[in-house]
Amino acid sequence: MNIQEAYNRLNKKQKNIVKSNSLRLLVLAGAGTGKTSSIVVRITKHLSNDGFLPENIVALTFSNKAARELKERVELIVGKSKCEGMFIGTFHAFCVRVLKNFYEEALLTENFQILDSDDQKSLIKTIIKARELKIIDEIKRKTHKKEDIDSIKSEFKTHLGMTKNIIAVLSEFKNNELPLTHLANRFLDFNVPAEYALLYAAIINDYENKKNAVGVVDFDDLIVKTNFIFSEHEWIKKEFGKRIKAVLVDEYQDTSKVQSTLISNICSQESFLTVIGDDDQSIYGWRGAYIDNILGFGERENAQVIKLEQNYRSSQIILSAANSIIKNNKHRLGKSLWTDNIGIEKITTITCYNNFEEGDYVAAKVKKLIEDGSSPSSIAILYRKNFMSSTIEGAFHKSQIPYKVYGGLSFWQRTEIKDFMALLKWVRNPDQSLSIKRYLTLIKIGYGELKHIAINRLSEENNTTYETELINFAFNGKSNRTKEGLKAIISMINNARTIYREEGLHKLTIYLSDACNIADSYKKIKDPEKIIEMMQNIAALSDMTEHFISESDVSSQVANDDLTAFLISADLQLDGVEEKEEKNLVSIMTIHAAKGLEFSYVFLIGVDEGHFPSERIFDITEMEEERRIAYVAVTRAKEKLWISCANNRLGKPTQGESQFTKEIPQELINKERLVRKLF
Ligand SMILES: Nc1ncnc2c1ncn2[C@@H]1O[C@H](COP(=O)(O)OP(=O)(O)OP(=O)(O)O)[C@@H](O)[C@H]1O
Ligand SMILES: [Mg+2]
């Protein structure tokens, strides 16, 4: 497709977006109306009509996947070589480029490192721990009272528990450009005593100092520091103003204040600035997105505003369903989307007995679609919570459906699953030294690399199993913490084997998930949300074993007991996951990861009240964001949408069909009933 063809394909309003000579342009339009398509062509207009060079153009978007797609679409029209030097990417990627060139002005070192969220957490925890130790040392020097020390220890446990909130507040301040001097006040909102609030502010101060001292930045800093360069060095701002002649921002509804400042920093009065978005698709409020950026843009910038109303993506039925969900939100601009695309396929809703039936149902439908000639990449399975991918993965594996889990680790690659599988492998095989070591180092009983090497060597020399040498070590000689820990675990492993022999695989996993100390070691993470998710994943794995028994004939060809068969099957899935890249695959992803994307066939799973919306949604602002997430999900579908819920998930009853499904008019729905398997 050349530039003219790409332009000709657009409708009148979309052409206006491309042609507009306004320096400030806001496109405010609903899902699937061709916003992204229009900016693709507007970029080519900047190149051809305005005579801009690729390096004069910056296009910013939200995720790497969305950026990649945007880039591909532009390259397809103008050719790859004409795009060289153009920046199309995320805000963070743009800032990294700038900071690499202006690290001195940003007060960084040339090789500054970026902290990921795990590093960030661990740095904050180290700071908290260091403060605790300092106070304890002082007590030891002065009074040495045990009760004082104990009380400090217990107080600092609470502080460690605040790590996630400390990080969230810091991010909120940076995204909203609030002065860090006001941090303490914000912590009072968590109903903590004033001295705790001061302490949390001081911890953040330590964190900032530490980062500066060692030359690292976190993700939020990337944008803050880039803005800092512009505010301190007028000449840099001028140079950018001269160089950058057009800035285009997709998904503008999910930008934060600090991102909006960045945009004004890199645009001069003479540069073109086009921002594009949909207030109904703002789904990152929890991460600092500032909806007033888009709502106030027209007036603030005296911008031309173009609205698009024709949706080209979805059938009328899907569009009506989306409209009928989103209209329940009070805080919105409101727009009426329409489409020419009549479509005959109603939305199928289905209530399953449990998540396994849901998984099998989806797998059967997907298999049929592929057999009937649909491309796997035209199919997506979307869900609200990460843990929901597990049963789908299991079912797809069983049905040999090629898939890829986007954004987030595949179920079998997740740490807690690998940890728990290590334990199962130990139960199965007393000589699985790597699995045994993984588990023992995880639970922190003082069992480390050196001990592991020693035990390994003994088992080789004596031609015994790793476990035998472990037992010899634990039960002989002077007792200590490690030995006591080992004794308890060995006894648990023995119990597990008895339970497996007498009651089978499912009971074994139930026993182990209860008895093992994995949950305890995760508690040290001090991130309640994350721990809940990890425990849900382990529960999902345990659930899977119950299902597995009834299906075990598949793996029984290679194993003569359920546990071995299950372990083999899991390893095969892990293998498969790692091999499958870049092929024609069914997409499995969270709704957040699917923003901006589209698929002919969408299965929206886990739409049970309590999970979506989550039972932990308390106020209207949060509920409206949940509903926008539902709107984003539904509007990903072009031809056909399935919405499923389960009456039981993770072995617990749910509250049945979600209110969002109930908001769709009955006439758009074809309700399917699943017949329960009898045997
Ligand atoms: N004028 C048009 N004629 C035919 N198809 C179009 C037209 N404009 C857009 N489309 C198609 O409509 C679909 C949606 O377009 P696009 O992804 O650009 O919408 P969007 O507004 O960016 O959606 P979202 O809100 O989900 O980001 C795409 O498949 C695109 O090719
Ligand atoms: Mg888009």
Automatic annotation (TrEMBL):
Catalytic activity annotation: ATP + H2O = ADP + phosphate + H(+); Couples ATP hydrolysis with the unwinding of duplex DNA by translocating in the 3'-5' direction
A single GO BP: recombinational repair
Stored PANTHER family: ATP-DEPENDENT DNA HELICASE SRS2 (PTHR11070:SF2), UVRD / RECB / PCRA DNA HELICASE FAMILY MEMBER (PTHR11070)
Domain UvrD-like helicase ATP-binding: 8-315
One term of GO molecular function: 3'-5' DNA helicase activity
Signal peptide: none
Protein name (Swiss-Prot/TrEMBL): DNA 3'-5' helicase
Keywords: ATP-binding, DNA-binding, Helicase, Hydrolase, Isomerase, Nucleotide-binding
The EC number(s) this enzyme carries: 5.6.2.4
